[in-house]
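[Q] Does anyone have a clean structure-token version of this?
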Amino acid sequence: MQKIFFAFIALNFAVNSNAGISAGIINNPGYLPFDSTSILQYDLMDINFEMKMSKNNPGDSVPYALVAGGSKGIGYALAEALASRGYNLILIARGLDSLVAAKNKLESSYHVHVEILVNDLSRQESADEISQWCIERNIPLKMLCNVAGFGGARDYLSNLPLDTLRYMVRLNVESAMALSLKLLPLLEKNAPSYILNVASMAGFAPIPVKNMYSATKAAVIFFSYSLRYQLKEKNISVSCLAPGPVFTKPEIIQDTKDRLGKFGMKMAVPPKKVGEIAIRKTLKKRMIIVPGTLAKITSLVIRVLPRRLVTAIYYKAGK
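[A] Here you go.
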């Protein structure tokens, strides 16, 4: 039993940073994974947007979902699951090319309308800029998905500089908090509505070698729990996705094979399946969403065992 549990912990430790961290950060401690330019907007002409909205009738417009970090990985999987249900989309990310590719694929496959905004969500001004854009166009927003985040194999007390650690906090925690607050008027106006925050199984217990990442994901989980009760009377449901290993990058697949072989491969859940499960359960107003049977068992064990014991196991696994 101890060996099985340790294997669960090792796999969770090895591949839990679903957002990933760029090689540039790991190899260049002074590198920051964002640029300092202000918001760039690529919405394919406001005229086109207004024409699309007018066809739907202002009172009965097709619902929109905003996915912050929606061009790749889990964010794109969520967007795809929403598009398959007829939601129009607003996708936000830093890279224009990936946003355009996501827009084209979703529109051609599901015949929905997709708006794209290029924005660095770690910037203090980003939530104001995004909410202003949505409010000015009276977006019938029914769901907000806060996905943007990043992490890595090691963070605090490693070779990462303070600016990069601050960036992690801003992107993983502050962006979700700020967007939820600034878009609340639209969500309330279009209630019943939904907020889906993306955390990680890493948020269920402290992980010494990934101190900051696990702390930020724990903050997202706690924030989601409290916000759920704060918004209950407004008919806005809050859910939190806390996945285990998700193969969003080739290196994660290889690392899982090397460390845990077939067991690890069986525990992992494909991004598309994660997105489908997350949206389905969000619409059913589930609070904590952990895709995959083995991941659910692992998360339960982690939460039931004494936190001090789990932290010690994580510490040994990280040495």
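[Q] Thanks! Anything notable?
[A] The longest strand covers residues 88-93.
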